[in-house]
Write a structure and sequence with these properties.
- By secondary structure, this protein is mainly beta.
- Helix content is about 0%, strand content about 60%.
- The strands form two sheets. It has a five-stranded mixed β-sheet with strand order 3-9-8-5-6, with no helix packed on it.
- A hairpin with a 2-residue loop joins strand 1 and strand 2.
């Protein structure tokens, strides 16, 4: 097994969820309207006013004092990015709390908000999360058009 594959030796994404809003504070995610996997819009092209991504990242205790590089992109089914300015990049230092013993992993929560996200067509999309330049998680969802109502005859 390659070292980049071993979760005991490298940062991993424990889970990710899509929500209407997410905040990270005190080691917790505060979620409003979370856990959805389908976005319904009136028509295409569509622009969704706001959506959020909550992540729990697990880092080996040996990363104490190191920095983790996180990258988030939003892709369509063909792998094209929806972020015209490129992926969101964030670096954060790892600090092992005194309550974490040698050998225990460190859990860290992160929250990201995306405004005015454009969707040109119906289909599958995914937030692609990479840690230290290695893809670790795809949080998938679908965008669908609201069924058109028939006019009574």
């Amino acid at each position: 097994m390659d070292i980049s594959e071993d979760p005991a030796l490298t940062p991993t994404v424990d889970f990710g969820l899509i929500a209407d809003a997410v905040q990270a504070s005190g080691g917790k995610l505060f979620v409003l309207g979370g856990g959805w996997d389908t976005l319904t819009v009136r028509a295409f092209p569509a622009r969704h006013h706001t959506l959020a991504l909550g992540l729990r990242i697990v880092v080996p205790w040996t990363y104490d004092g190191k920095t983790v590089r996180l990258e988030i992109s939003l892709q369509d089914e063909d792998g094209h990015s929806l972020f015209t300015s490129g992926p969101v990049r964030h670096q954060f230092p790892v600090r092992r709390p005194p309550t974490v013993a040698d050998g225990e992993s460190i859990g860290m929560v992160q929250a990201y908000t995306f405004n005015n996200v454009p969707f040109r067509q119906a289909g599958g999309y995914a937030f692609v999360v990479s840690l230290d330049d290695i893809e670790r998680k795809r949080i998938r969802f679908r965008v669908r058009q609201m069924p058109q109502r028939s006019e009574p005859s």
